[in-house]
């Protein structure tokens, strides 16, 4: 049966905190909703914790099998009803799955709980035993993505492949593949595999495929004996090997971030992808045009991707297109928004450097010296880009701050005038 969870009322927060943070005391809980499971255990939400009949003997870190389930949680507001409908369907398809528990939570009626446990409405969240950390995923909510999420959660984000063709077949424009290839008894696995495990779990919230390969026939086609390598497989069958001598978590995370968006031709076709664009921390090669021309597509396919490659439709997004394509001479031109261009962009920091041609040598040079080149641009050019990026990604916040600023300005102006009027000596009326 599906382990379907329902929300507790907000007055159970203290009991939940007891469970979630593993306090060594017995948690006394009155249930708002009970679901009886085959092992006579019961769930409560949020952080979806099992409460066994005699819960409290060992605290939250109980060894009872009930705590071994990973949880998939969808908090929502009324405006997320379409996504909730998809998640409800996902729950029904998982009804016979004995390995995960799923839940929905109405954050309109349970605001305190959603806030307390940092559950962001409209996003799927994941929790693994011992359930002291909730992971907000960046995955889109559709049937295909939720199905992949279920498999990722059950297998701790590792996927098995039986052949090299299967690996290449799974690499796509939107779902990158990373493989740790090793000999079964490789001596360096003792050091590298724990790092790889941490890497895999760090990215479980994203649509990325990870695999650990020791099959000799696959290994021989991925790397050179006797190496143990982390390899990115591009959508076009290219291999990029992590070549840093220090196989440590920060470095492999950086490697994945550099390659996880190989070619996002359709990045701006969905609202979610566009709204998250300013969260991409690495540099991006951006093509601004109305469509991808054949020669550009051929170049992208041949290029070894060192940065995300993004396509921006200048007709749909004129403000952002103008801010990326303008040069110092273009700042005062009214038609800058109609231009096409190529650029290296740091969306997070509102920086961009326009390039004249798709030349891999030029691109790599700009990437290597990005901050130095950008610092030499005129100040007004840099300020204009910050303004445009802010309007594009944080327009609502700008409007809100503007309204608040105007209100405060009017208030203090009135207060100042009143104070001046109060301090001004009163003139005596002449008789």
UniProtKB/TrEMBL annotation:
Listed A to Z, the keywords are: Membrane, Transmembrane, Transmembrane helix
Keyword Membrane present in the record's keywords: the answer is yes
User: Which residue ranges does UniProt annotate as crossing the membrane?
Assistant: 398-423
Listed name of the protein: Thioredoxin domain-containing protein
* Species in which this protein is naturally found: Tritrichomonas foetus
């Amino acid at each position: 049966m599906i382990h379907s969870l329902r929300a507790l009322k907000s007055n159970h927060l203290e009991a939940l905190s007891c469970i979630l943070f593993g306090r060594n005391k017995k948690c006394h809980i009155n249930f708002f909703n009970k679901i009886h499971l085959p092992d006579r255990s019961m769930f409560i939400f949020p952080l979806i914790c099992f409460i066994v009949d005699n819960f409290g003997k060992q605290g939250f870190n109980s060894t009872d099998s009930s705590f071994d389930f990973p949880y998939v949680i969808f908090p929502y507001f009324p405006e997320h009803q379409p996504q909730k409908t998809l998640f409800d369907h996902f729950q029904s398809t998982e009804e016979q799955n004995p390995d995960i528990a799923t839940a929905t939570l109405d954050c309109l009626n349970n605001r305190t709980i959603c806030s307390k446990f940092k559950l962001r409405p409209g996003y799927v969240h994941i929790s693994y035993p011992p359930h002291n950390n909730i992971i907000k995923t960046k995955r889109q909510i559709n049937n295909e993505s939720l199905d992949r999420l279920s498999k990722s959660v059950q297998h701790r984000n590792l996927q098995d492949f039986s052949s090299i063709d299967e690996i290449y077949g799974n690499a796509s424009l939107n779902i990158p593949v990373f493989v740790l290839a090793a000999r079964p008894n490789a001596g360096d696995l003792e050091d590298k595999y724990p790092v790889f495990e941490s890497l895999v779990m760090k990215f479980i919230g994203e649509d990325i495929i990870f695999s650990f390969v020791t099959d000799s026939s696959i290994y021989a086609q991925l790397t050179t004996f006797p190496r143990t390598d982390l390899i990115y497989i591009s959508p076009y069958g290219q291999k990029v090997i992590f070549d840093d001598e220090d196989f440590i978590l920060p470095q492999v995370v950086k490697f994945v971030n550099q390659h996880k968006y190989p070619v996002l031709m359709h990045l701006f076709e969905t609202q979610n992808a566009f709204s998250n664009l300013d969260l991409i921390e690495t540099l991006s090669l951006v093509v601004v045009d109305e469509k991808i021309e054949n020669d550009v597509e051929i170049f992208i396919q041949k290029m070894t991707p060192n940065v995300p490659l993004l396509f921006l439709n200048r007709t749909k997004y004129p403000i952002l297109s103008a801010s990326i394509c303008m040069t110092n001479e273009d700042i005062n031109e009214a038609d800058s928004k109609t231009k096409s261009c190529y650029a290296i962009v740091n969306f997070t920091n509102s920086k961009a450097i326009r390039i004249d041609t798709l030349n891999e040598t030029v691109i790599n040079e700009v990437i290597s010296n990005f901050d130095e080149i950008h610092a030499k641009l005129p100040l007004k050019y840099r300020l204009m880009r910050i303004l445009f990026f802010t309007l594009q990604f944080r327009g609502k916040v700008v409007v809100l701050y503007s309204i608040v600023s105007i209100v405060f300005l009017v208030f203090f102006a009135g207060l100042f005038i009143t104070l001046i009027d109060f301090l001004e000596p009163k003139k005596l009326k002449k008789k």
